[in-house]
Amino acid sequence: MRWSLLLVLLAACKVKDPPPVTEEWKDGFEREEIGGDYYKSGRGYEIASGQLSAKGAHNHPLWLRKKLPHDVRIDLDAWSNEERGDIKVEVFGDGRSFDPDGGAYMATGYEVIFGGWFNSKSIIARLDEHGKDVVTNTTVKVHPTRHYHWRIERVGKRLTWFVDDMQTPFLVLDDPNPLEGTGHEYFGFNNWESDTWFDNVVITPL
User: Fold this and answer.
1) Looking at the domain assignment, is residue 165 inside a domain?
2) Number of domains comprising the chain
């Protein structure tokens, strides 16, 4: 009887995800608390002056708990207040995972990093930012405090990232085996140590 009661209580306490993204969804962070649409896998995130701050999170993403459609457009504003840049998000991850020990981080989705490695390169990486499934740009640097507009799109097997110029892709990753289905349905803000910020998120099914 005791075990039955425990199972009932555990089931009652389980928090269900909000509904998936089936139409345009926006977040301008005009509030004081991050709120129930997100899952914090660790520290380092807060809302200040209507913007999302990410600093010192050590690869513990702030996951949006709404599932993404397979084909989707994600618009957002992003910036860093430091010379080292290092602005990071994840797309099509599992919505829960994080770096458990501060070692080599293995993502569950695609990592999108602007000005990583002390502002030396920007990448889209499939699962492993140190692996072979990576596309790289080393010519563009992050300018401190400059606000950038990002657009990340997936259509079919192609993931495209635009920075400011919505006509010319910044990076494109063609994935013959796209990450999809269970375990690859969520968007997350991520951060190692740098002082980074996000605002004006718009997610649109395609």
Assistant:
1) yes
2) 1
Overall size of the chain counted in residues: 206
- Whether 175 contacts 126, CB under 8 Å: yes
pLDDT, tens digit only, all 206 positions of the chain: 454 444 444 444 456 889 999 999 999 999 999 999 999 999 999 999 999 999 999 999 999 999 999 999 999 999 999 999 999 999 999 999 999 887 778 899 999 999 999 999 999 999 999 999 999 999 999 999 999 999 999 999 999 999 999 999 999 999 999 999 999 999 999 999 999 999 999 999 99
Q: Is residue 32 part of a domain?
A: yes
| Domain annotation covers residue 196 | yes
Here the CATH number for the domain that contains residue 183 is 2.60.120.560
Boundaries of domain holding 160: 20-205
Query: Do the domain assignments include residue 63?
Result: yes
